Each structure stands twice: as C-alpha cells, then as structure tokens.
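Researcher: Let's continue the batch. This sequence belongs to Cohesin subunit SA, and it's 1240 residues. Same format as the previous ones, please.
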Amino acid sequence: MIAAQELQTDFHYSHEADTQLSSDTDLEDPESRNAKPGKGKKGKKAPSEKVKGAGVRAQGRVNGHHQENGTENLSLFEIVKLGKSATQSVVDDWIESYKSERDMALLELINFFIQCSGCKGAVSSEMFRHMQNSEIIRKMTEEFDEDSGDYPLTMSGPVWKKFKWGFCEFIVVLVRQCQYSIIYDEYMMDTVISLLTGLSDSQVRAFRHTSTLAAMKLMTALVNVALNLSINMDNTQRQYEAERSKSLGKRANDRLELLLQKRKELQENQDEIENMMNAIFKGVFVHRYRDAIAEIRAICIEEIGVWMKMYSDAFLNDSYLKYVGWTMHDKQGEVRLKCLTALQGLYHNRELNTRLELFTSRFKDRIVSMALDKEYDVAVQAIKLLTLILHSDEVLTAEDCESVYHLVYSAHRPIAMASGEFLYKKLFSHRGPEEDGLPRRGRQCRNANLIKTTVFFFLESELHEHGAYLVDSMWECGADLLKDWETMISLLLDETFPGEEALTDRQETALIEIMLCAVRQACECHPPIGRGTGKRVMTAKEKKTQLDDRTKITEIFAVALPLLLTKYSVDAEKVTNLLQLPQYFDLEIYTTGRLEKHLEALLRQIREVVEKHTDTDVLEACSMTFHALCNEEFTIFNRVDIARSQLLDEQVDKFHRLLEDFLQEGEEQDEDDAYQVSSTLKRITAFHNAHDLTKWDLFTSNYKLLNTGLQNGDMPEQIVIHALQCTHYVILWNLAKVSEGTSKKVRLTHTESFCLMCQRYLSSLSTAVKEQAFTILCDALMIFSHQIVASGREVLEPLVFSPDSSLQSDLLNFILDHVFIDQDDDNSTDGQQDDEACKIEALHKRRNLLAAYCKLIIYNVVEMNTGADIFKQYMRYYNDYGDIIKETMSKTRQIDKIQCAKTLILSLQQLFNEMLSELGCNFDRSSSSFCGIKELARRFSLTFGLDQLKTREAIAMLHKDGIEFAFKEPSPQGEGGPPLNLAFLDILSEFSSKLLRQDRKTVHMYLERFMTFQMSLQREDCWLPLISYRNSLQAGADDDTLSVISGVSRGSARSKKNKMASTGKRRLPEGVDAGAWMTREQGVQQTPVMMSSPHMTSTVLRDAKKLRPDEGYVGVYTMSNDPQHTPLQQTPQPPLRWFITVVWLVQFVYLFVYISRRSAGLMEDDEEPIVEDVMMSSEQRLEDLNEGMDFDTMDIDLPPSKNRRERSELKPDYFDPASIMDDSSSGLSLSFFFFFFFFF
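Model: Same format as before. Here are the structure tokens for Cohesin subunit SA:
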C-alpha cells in the first residue's frame, strides 16, 4: 500500500490536540460527529481487522455501491461515465464503504483516478500494501495502450464531455460530503494528495492532465471548505465577544468555555486545510502552470482565478496574481483566454479593485496590447476586461483608450461590439448633476450632447465611409441613443439656443450619415456588409421591435424628410443620404396616418432635386426612391406613378429636342448644348436603371447618337458613355420583358448591332469610353451567351450571341493594353499618379476589367486558349492580379482539365518565343528571362495539386505539346545542331514530378520519337536541356534502371536473371568513359549512349531499398554477362552480413544522437522554465515585474518529493510528442548497441 512512512515524510500537518467538534458547532456531521479518528499513524487497522472488515458489507451493496435491479457491479469510473446516478448518492455510497473498510474504499478511489486517465491497468490490493507511490505509477505507465493517444479528457463526443463534468463534480461533492470528519483523519486526503502529486509529475500526458485537473478541483473544494471555516470562526469570535461583554451576573462561563473550545477546533481544522492547500499548490500548481501542454496550463489558471474570487482574503494578493500576469504572455490563445476570464471575475467586483492596484499598474500595458491579439476570442475578452478596468479612476490613459477606440471599425463583429461597449461607457456613461433637469427630447436634452460627441468621434476617426460599422458596434449598448431620431432632426432643423455652438457643415453631413445608418440597422436587423456571416433567424421579440421601429421611422421622417430636403437641396452628399430614407418606410402609414400632404411635398422635393443635380449618386438615389414608393400593393402607387411619369416625360421630350438640335449643328457643336444633352441623358440613364422606359423608344435615339459619334469622331466622351449605358439598359429591359412573357418580340438584331457599336468604340481615343464599351461588351456577352437558355428557357435560344474571332481579339488586346501596364504608365488618373488614393482607385478599376474578361473565359464565352495571354502575366503582375489569375486557372481546370493544360503550356510557349525574339537563339539559360519562365512553370505545376490521378491526362497532354514545340523548329545552325526550341525542355521538366510512374516511361518513349541517333551522342552544353528532361522522366519511373540509352534499342528487354544488386548509391566519376555507363544484357548488341551531366547523376541513380524484389540495382560500373569477370573483383567486397550490420549501426547511432539532443524534455528542474514557449518574458522583464511585489506564499515544510528522483524509472510518454526517452531506455539502447557491435 502507499506506506505511512511516505506520507509522514511528504506531509507534516500540525496537530496540536486530539479534539472533536463540539455539539453546538454548525460544521459537525450529524451522523458521525464523534467519528473523527485518533491522530496517530493514520489510525491503520490491524491486518486481522482488515480481513474481518473486508468481508463486512452492507446488505445489498457491492464495492460500496447499491445494486439496482440485479445489474452487474460497476466501478466508480463506469458509474461517473454513464452519468445515470446522482453524484450525491454515489459519493454517499463511497463514504459508507470508507467507514466500513477504508483501505478497500481508498483503493477503489485510487483506481478511479487511474482509470479516468485512460489506463487499462488497475492497482491491486497487494500493490497498494507493499509498493511505493512511484512504483505504482511506473507500473501503471506500462499498462497504457501505445497505439492510441486518446484518453477520456481528450475524447470527443457528448458522452466524454459529460464525463469530464461528472469527474469534476464527483471530486467537489466528495470533499463537500467529507468536510466534517473524513478529510481530517490524516489518511484519505493524505493518500489522495500524494497520489495526484505523483501522477501530475509523470511524463505520461494522460496521467499529468487528469491528475492536474483532479488536483485543481480538489483544491477548489478545499478552498470552499476553508472559506466556510473562516466564516464560522468569525461567527464564533463574535459570539464569544458578545458573551464576554456581558456583566458578570449575566455572563455564562460554560458558554464561554464552549465557544473557546469550538474556536480552537475550527482553528485546528483550518490549519489542516491550509496545509492541504499548500501541498497541492506547491506540489502541483507551481509546476503545472507552466507545463508543456496548453490544456494543463489553462486548467491551472482557470482554477486559481476561482480561488481568488471565492476566497479573496486568502488568495487575492500579489503572490498569486503574479502567476496570472506571467501567463498572459503564453503563446497559446486558450491559456491567455483563461487569464483574461479569471481577471474579469475579479475586476467585476468593485470592492476588490483596491487589492488589484499594483497588479493593474504592472500588467496594464500587456492587457491593452492583448486587445490586438491574433486570436479573436482573446482580443474580445481583453477589451471586456479593459471595460471593467474603466471603473477604476484614471487607470487607463488617453493613449490606452485610443488603442481600443479604433477597433469599433473592425471587420470582426465581436471585437467591434466589445470596443463599442468600451467606447460607450467611456464617453457616454458619465452623467453629471447638471443633466438631471434637462428635457428628454429636443435640442437641449441630454442625448443631444451625446449625439454631438458621437459625431465628433466619427469625424476624428477619419473613416467617414464606415458610419455603418460605428453604428453596428454601438448598437447593443447604445441603441436608445442611436434611435433618438427626433433629437437628431432637431439638431439639423431647429435654431440654436443662446450660448450653443451650431454644427458645422461637415458635422451636419456626418450626423445625417449616422442617422441613415441607424435607420438601416433598425429596419434590416443585420450587420453591414463584411461584418457577419449572414442573416440569422430573428426571434418574435426582435421581429416586433423591428416593426415598431419601422413604424416610428415612418411617422417621424415622413414629416421631417421634405423639410430636410428643402434645407439641404443643394448639397449633393446630404441629399444622397436623405433620399435613401424612404426605402425603409412603411408606406401604408401614409394612408392610415393621413400623411398624403407630406407625400406630395416629398415628391415635389425629389423633382426639384432631379432638376438641380447632375451628380450620378444623387440621381440614382432619386431613382431608387421612386422605385421604393411605386409599389402597387399600396394605395399611394397611383399618385407616385403619375409624378414619376410626368418627370420622365419631361426629361425624354427634352432629350429628343436637344438631341435633334445637337445633331444638326454638325461639327460646330456648342458646349452649352452638349452639356444640356449630357445632363439630360445622364438623368434618363439613372432612371432607366430601375424603371422600364422602353415605351419611349430610346434605342433609336441613342444608336443614332453613337453612330454620329463614330462618323464625326468628336463626340464628347460623357455623352458617349451615358449613351452606351442607356442603350445597354434598353436591351436588358427588352430581354426582361421577353423572359417574363410580356413581350413576344424576340430579336437579335439590336444586340448584334449594339455589340458591333461597342466593338468599334474599343478603338476610341478616350480611355473612359473604351473602358465603358469593354465593360458593357463583357456584360452583354455573358448575358446573351449559351447560359441564357438554361433552366428551361429554350424560347430565348434565338437571342444567343457568340463573339467572333475579331471581337475576341479586340477584347484581349484591350486587356493587354489597358490592364497589364505599369502603374506609372496609367494615364487614367489625369496626372495624379502621385496621389496614393488615385493609384488604388485605378488599380481597382483595372482589376474589375480583368475580372470581367476572366469571367468570359470561365464560362466558355471566349476560347479558353485566349487565357494564355492572361496566364503568362501571373508572375509579373502577381501582386496586382495574382488572385484573379489563379482563380481563373482553377475554374478553367474544373471545366476542362486537358484544355486548361494546353492553355498553360501555350502561355509558356508564348513567353519563350518572346524571349527568343528579344535575346536571340544564343541566349544564356541563366538569364533572368529564362529563369522567370522556368519559375512560372514551377508555379503552374504547383496548381495541379497532389492528386496525380485527377490530372493524369492533362499532365500527359501538357508534356506532349511541350515536346512537339521543342522539336518543331529546325536548328538555326543547320543539320546536326540542336533544335531552335530545345531549351524549352528545361522548362517542361518542371512538370515531370506531376507524372505518374507508369506515364513517365510513356512520355519518355514519345520523346524518343523526335530524337535522332546523332542526338543521343551529343554532350555539348546546348544539349543539356534534353539530358535534363530525360533524367527528370527517369527519376521514379517504373523501370528504375532505365538509363539515357537511345530510343533506337527501346524495343529490347533487359534480362532480370543476371542483375547485380547494389547496397548503396554510387556517384559517377567525371572521367568515366561513356561506354562504361550501362549496357543491356542477354546478348543485345551494345549501343553507344549519351552520358548524363555529372551534376544530374542523382536524378538517374536511385536507392537500392526502393527497388522491387524482382529487380536489381545497376551501378555505375560496366556489367558483363560473364559472372567470373567483373570490374567489381578489383575491390574485394566484405561479407553482405557485415555490411548490413554496419549500415544498421550507423543508422542507430544517428537515432541515438538525435534523441540525446532532445534531452531537454518535459521534466527539468523547477528553477528553469519547462518549455520555452510557456514563459515569454525574459529574466530581466520578470525582475521588473517582480520588483515591489510581495511574492511570499503560505509556506509548508515539505521535503523534496521522491517522484522527481524516481522519474527516470518511468516509461516514455507515448502520448506526448514533447516527451523524451528516459535514462533507463537510453542505457538499454547503449547496451544493445555495444552488444551488436561486439557480436559482429
């Protein structure tokens, strides 16, 4: 058993008196308050008593557990795993068993911890009586299953998740039920703590993890017991003081003595609990909080946070807080997360803030920096912790707060919302006494100042295009403020009161944007684009809130919006935002609320805005507003439709009139007339985007205008751009009507003539016109491609339009001329290349143009081989368009693998031809141009992935085309010289690794068809690409002995009978003769061969161990059919057995040295960190952190644990990759090594 001597040396508890709880204590056990055993050597029973007690069991109980309905006996582990029995009853059964026979019950508890670790073995009674703690642990280590690294705490599934909860609950309930007597018997707790301490020091991860969790939960339960003892001691002390303060006549001396006795007993119990806690803390926590396993470190930090929160008087000091502070530098996010959650529980209680002042001052900077943690969960909790720290006055500086403020614009919504709460509590939660008497609504209310503060913050952040992100961040905590639209309107419309500073124009613009974002958030109830994964299902309460908000918005803004438009009608930016508000109205309220006059006022203001402005954003906002109001489901439709028709009638009539006059002017066009035509056409185009204007026959007018522009060549570019766009809308509306069945006219003439018009405009002098024509062409070709007849729309087949080769060529030339250009060559920014924003905008525009063309390739609208001119730009423009080109290659490969491969090789061929034109046929293969092509081929090869079966045919076709290209052109040097494109084989070799082994031989045979006998004899540098390519095909081929022999004799078979095996690779000497390289057997006539380049020898020779059993290994020496005459006889060969042994020993020594270098494993001395990544602070930094902090913990006089001296006897941790071999295994390995050495 776990000997008493060991426990006595491990734990020196103070036991001053042999007492029991008095009758009136509130901690006594009602059933066994006199059951506390005497304090000797653990009160062990005599062996005869044990035998006698072992046979005494309560009736109907086996192993301390009830048998229900005749079920088989279950161990504690199985009961906890099943989770069908209440933990309270399981613990009570064990306690009864312990009272009747404590050795057997304790053995069952020990096996419970062993089995919970995943160990298949069990501690027997004999082991329990006679073996030491370390011996038992070593024995259990041998029982582990080496084939699996899983154990209960790491297994997945609901059963094991429930088991972990039941395991922790069992320990807590066990201590709670034993807190009155059993934990003070100097036997149960001593044994359990000693076992868990030893297991936590094990090299086996399962033991270490499980025992650490058990020890930490045991510590938590003991902390709860200590807290109760402390409370009872305080109560007893107060009772004693109250009794003693009475007069002598009224004082009860017996009660005073009883209270003194009770307080003494409580003090003794508290001392024992304190010793237990110190033993666990110093024996387990201080070693495992820096364990190599992150889960173990997280357990320690999580539990110490519970202790400090539960029993702050004992644990909330710098001696324990330092561990949390240090561990905040841990490299694993889950450990840092536990640190933050532990601190949140402390800072949440404002009464504890004074005890945290020193810790806050030392680790505040680290907490602030964790708001930018790479782990999103950690960053969120760090911000929440900083929000709690705000309660402490002036702890966070302005710089600290600003580092959190900007996170409200983060794309990660939890971080943004946590930052929004921090911002709201910092800026808006402080209420001054002067604000108590302010009105609830209006310009002078409290929210008015808060709204102004929000506007000021928004402007100072200089992210004016992200108002929706700011509103979304503050929505959870500041919804009431953001929904105060009456106050916002009052700030915009009402006059300022005396002494108030009015909002500037910039501030009013920002306020309108925030107001619009708040309205959108209230009505749509989902985060803005880029923040969030999608719409979620709203609850009934959220739906009701949404409807109420929408009703409120309509009632408020239906009245205020015309007034706001009247005031800001000339400001394009303000009007654009204001005109988006009607999209969120409940239009039925216009009728039910009798707000028709306000609707009329709104329509008048929109009409005035259309007539005043020519800005595209403003006109599109007006168009969308009419689209939202023109809903046939509501009674206001007729009124809005009439207003819309009148507006469009006026604009179309005006356009026709102006256009006729404009075209009659000929070459002498007036600028004012051109401006009028452009502005009117711009308004019509903006409305045509959302409204059907086909009844005005705009196609004829616009086509006539465009045709005139082509003939004269002096049409203003803005007129051409809007005419192209308007004509495009006409065609799309006609297609929509045909698709819906409202029109039976199916005509392709308009589409063809318009596409031809756009193609002619691709040669315009204006870059803007060419870009517009290109974009419209790509959209039109996509819409009217063969995809149009999908999903049962065969009726639209006459509308299918496929581009001819001329149009495809023009589109490709546009991409090459306007997309693949250097940044400095782009003149589209009108001389503003130095402006970084303009450069980014120009790049964004070019990316859109490239993406539009790549869609045509992906959907097979244009020939896939046109993508070769795109793919060849992959390396040169990788930073700008690499993602687009790579995605295009991926999509085309999904459509047609073979055609995609042919396109890739075509792009390489084009680059090779360009290089020849630039450098000539005698170029240097080490030049940057050739190396760039080869690097591009390598990148192309990587895109084929690892599954060679899927790409087998494509790779084979790629090699076929590459070989044909290499031998296509004759040698410029005449007969006998290398082909012009022979160097292309060096590029093609980058794809050889993607060939299957059986395909390499096939490709090699295909290559030999193009080779002549003379080519196989060449050795000059100009032939190296051929040699290199052939070697790349031979590496890993089916026939490992396949050499560079000419294809002249490829039909002969190599004999397998007289092959000689080689035990290692041999490198070809540089001076060896070509005829001595390799010969064929079985009387085949020897053929002169081409010798491989010396530096490529490794691609031909292979390791003998990779050969098939029926194959030999051909060395670099000549092999003869005569077995009695071989050059190998010149060098006597040692016996094969000896050679194999030497090789084995060399490999073993290498393994031994490798293991020795990893000797710094898990269990180093406590003075040094266990793993480098656990403590991230340097020694100097730790000294700075330690300075001024009291690190003295509760001391316990314990001798050094034997477990650390005995750990060398343990087996390696088969579950922990960070573990190392112990000394015994190393010694065995050395003995094994020397045994083989002397044996041989």
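Researcher: Any comment?
Model: The longest helix spans residues 205-244.
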